[in-house]
Amino acid sequence: MKNLIAIVLLLFSIAGQAQTLLVSDVDDTIKLANVKDLSSATHYAFDEESRFLGMSELYNLIVKDRPETEVVYLSRAPEWFMGRTHRKFLRNGKFPQGTYIPRTDYSSDIHKIQTLRDLLEEKKPRKVILIGDNGEQDAEIYAQIVKEYANQGVEFYQFIRVVYSKNAYMDGGALLLQDQMGFVTPVEMALELEKNHLLETSSVQWVMEKLVPQILMQKSHAAGGEVAFPFFVSCGDLKWTWDDSLARFEIMKSLKDRIVTRCKIKP
């Protein structure tokens, strides 16, 4: 009887753990923010609508294909300043239900990394998808977390939106670190997630049929709404590594050409 009770308790414990944890930054990752420019950032601060095209669709596809996924939106912005706007933004953008964690108890310097440590200790996930941007400290923080948990059997997948160029004269973007994948649209992420068995091929096919045509119709320097290429994005540091998809999906040739042209990627 005692053994049976122990087994039941163990099963409940495992069931309560998030097998897959998706942690997403908000500003400049899914929401237009332009944090490097004070005037522009002030304009976007209370914008509850302007977002990167296709990100909510991608997140919803991940949750559909991996129902055990728990979603966390982790922001360095303080609750009192951006909490209301971020929550409305997530609802307006139809992002999957999850936990929104703004900065409250910790200082801005340690909020994200300490919150990630807390989440990993509490949830004990097997797989962790980390999504951020190169505007602030996401790349450095994610790399540090991966290093700390390197020997604990957790599989990490790191995606960093390339928003700012590291070669900019002022306020350049952060360098991507080891095992971090840069991206400009959700399409690149979808292909990588499929390779790692986190997204079904049928979902990638949906992305190709529904999202890529929308991206191709987008303006190259948009200011607001649901956009693929905001005017402030400087993505020349993106490393294109998806040529293996060109033979699978005919439309990928057009997407590659569009990204290479818009980002001014050197061959």
Q: Describe it for me?
A:
The protein is an alpha/beta fold. The protein has one domain: HAD superfamily/HAD-like (Rossmann fold). Helix content is 41%, strand content 16%. The chain contains 9 helices and 8 strands. The chain has helices spanning 2-15, 38-45, 55-65, 79-92, 111-123, 138-148, 186-195, 201-216, 252-263; strands at 20-24, 51-52, 69-78, 99-103, 127-133, 155-161, 180-183, 226-227. Strands 4-3-1-5-6-7 form a 6-stranded parallel β-sheet. It has a two-stranded parallel sheet with strand order 2-8. Strand 3, helix 4 and strand 4 (99-103) form a beta-alpha-beta unit. Helix 8 crosses helix 9 (252-263). The model is unreliable at 1-16 (pLDDT under 50).
Just give the CATH class. Alpha Beta
Q: State Rg.
A: 19 Å
> Span from first to last CA?
67 Å
Helical stretch count?
Answer: 9
Tell how many strands the DSSP assignment holds.
8
Shape: globular
Average of per-residue pLDDT values: 92
Largest sheet: 6 strands, parallel
- The run of helices and strands is HEHEHEHEHEHEEHHEH
CATH level-3 fold name: Rossmann fold
Spatial sequence of strands, sheet with the most strands = 4-3-1-5-6-7
The CATH architecture would be 3-Layer(aba) Sandwich
Helix content: 40-55%
Structural class, please?
alpha/beta
Topology overview:
Blueprint: H1 2-15, E1 20-24, H2 38-45, E2 51-52, H3 55-65, E3 69-78, H4 79-92, E4 99-103, H5 111-123, E5 127-133, H6 138-148, E6 155-161, E7 180-183, H7 186-195, H8 201-216, E8 226-227, H9 252-263
Parallel strand pairs: 1-3, 1-5, 2-8, 3-4, 5-6, 6-7
Helix pairs in contact: 5-6, 7-8, 8-9
